[in-house]
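The data layer described in this paper is built around a simple, fixed record for each protein. Such a record has a labelled line for the sequence and another for the C-alpha cells. For reference, a complete record is included directly beneath this paragraph.
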Amino acid sequence: MSNVASKPLAGKVALITGGSRGIGNAIATELAERGADIAFNYFRNHEAARTAHAQIERLGVKCFSARAHLGDEDAIKTLFEKVSDEFGNLDILVNNAASGVMKPATELETKHWDWTLDINARAPWLCSKAAANLMPNGGKIVNVSSPGSTRPFSDYFAVGVSKAALEALTRYMALDLAPRNIAVNAVSASFIMTDALKAFDDTESVKKFAARPTPAGRPVEPGDIAKTVAWLCSDDAVMIRGQVILIDGGEMLVYR
C-alpha cells in the first residue's frame, strides 16, 4: 500500500484545540494515525498534556503542545505564533476546546455567560482568523458543536447558546473563507462518556444517558467523532461547506 493510501494526511499540519483529553485527544490521535503532524493546546492539566504528547509522537509524527487559555485573545495570538514558528504553516484547524457554566438561564450571571461564550464561540472565530493566515494554499477548519445548539437540555443554557453561535459562525466563515480555498464545517457530537460530563450538576443522569444504546445499537464514542472529522479534512469532502454533521447514532430522532 502506498504512503498516500496508508497516510493520506502525511505532510499536513493540524492544530486541535483542547487536544489533550476526550474528543480532542481522539481527533488528534486519528489525524496523527493518518500521517498529520499535530499541534494542540491545553488549559490546566499538564499531566494529561504530557501523556497525549508522548502518545502522538509514538505514532511517528511531530507533535507540539502548549498551554493556552482560549478565553484570552492574547493567548490565542501567542499560540498561533508558536505554531507558526514550529511548523511554518497550517493545513487543518479543529476548534474542539469548550467550557461552560451549567446553570439555568435564571441563575446564570454575566461572568458565567462571558466565560462560556468567549471560549466556545469567540475563540473559534479568533482561531479561525489566525489559522487562515497560516493556510496560503487552502485548508480545512472543523468546529465541534453539540445537539444542545437546537435542543434545550437542563442547565445547558449558556453552552447551548454558545454552540448555536458556533454553528452560525461555521456557515458565515464557510462563505468568507471559500475564496481562499478553506473549507469550514462542523460536527455535532452527542453526549459521550468523557470527563466533560462532570460539569453537569446531575452527573449520574447524564452519564446514564450517554451510556445507553442509541438506535444504532451502541453509545457514541470519541472515535466516531474523530473519524468524521478526519473525513472532513480529506480531499473527499472538498465540496462540503458550512455544514453541521450530527453524530449521535440516531439518538436525537427519539430524544424526549
